[in-house]
Every structure is written in C-alpha cells, then in structure tokens.
Design a protein that fits this description.
With 161 residues, the chain is of the alpha+beta class. The chain has two helices and ten strands; from the N terminus they run βββββαβαββββ. A five-stranded mixed β-sheet has the order 1-3-8-9-10, with no helix packed on it. The chain has a five-stranded mixed β-sheet with strand order 2-5-4-6-7, with helices on one face. Helix 1 packs across helix 2. It is globular.
Amino acid sequence: MGTMVKVGMADLNVCLPPDAITTLGLGSCVGIVLYDPGKKISGMVHIMLPDSAKIRNNENIAKFADTGIEELLNRVLKLGANRGALIAKIAGGAQMFAFNSNNEMLKVGMRNVEAVKAKLSALRIPIKAEDTGLNYGRTIEFYPESGELLVKSVGKPVKKL
C-alpha cells in the first residue's frame, strides 16, 4: 500500500502508483485530476476561484481554475505523462448555501465548474467523469493504479468515477 498524498486548499500535487492522492472538503471549490491511463501518472489541483485575471496579487497559482490547471498540466508532463493521452476527472463546485440568491459570490461553485470545463476544453483534455454541483461538500481520493476517483460525502454512499 502506498502513501496518501494530501492536497490542501489552493494547492496541487502529483502522484504515481502505488501512492494515491486526496483533497478534503471541496465545497464550492473544484478538485481536478489529470491522468495518463497508460503511464498511470496523475496529479490533482484544488481550485477555489474561476479566474486569476480578476484578482491582483494572485501569486498562488493553484487557487484559480485557469492557472491551477495549467500548472498541474506542466507538472504531470514533467513526470513523463503523454500529453495526448491525458484525461480529466472533476468533482466539487457545490452551491453551499441553500437560499436561492442571484448574488454572484454565492454562485462561485457553478462558476468554478464552468471555468474548469472551459480551461480543460481549451487544453483539449477530455473530462471522463464528474461529480459537481448540488449543495454538499465532497472529499475525493484518486488511485492512479486503477484510475478510480472516489467521491466521499457525509451521509452518502461513496461514488466511484
């Protein structure tokens, strides 16, 4: 059994078997896994906001969908991943507040998911699985050996993507 590599909020890391990689407490944040199924090289980023261009002093590139996914892509390629083989799995982007408001800040989960999809599409990385939206938090674990993404939520069965 390998080690469980932890990815914090606004953080990213890469992972090779037999290790697995996890991030806790995805609310409106989105966890993105990039994976080369042939070489079993993977990485995960936990993004909090859609777009780095709207924020000054954004030295933390992992915090934003656009820069976080780009940096993650660079890291898995450095490990030897095949650019054309990469796939993505994503989870999170919940609407954590129940009231139906038009306040844009409360729609950050939805905007995060849209930004992640737009960035992956621009990079031509297909999304093979997703568990996004709704109104509950998620913890995810990715196992590069099998390519399985486990999504855990309080009071819900574990999902395998």
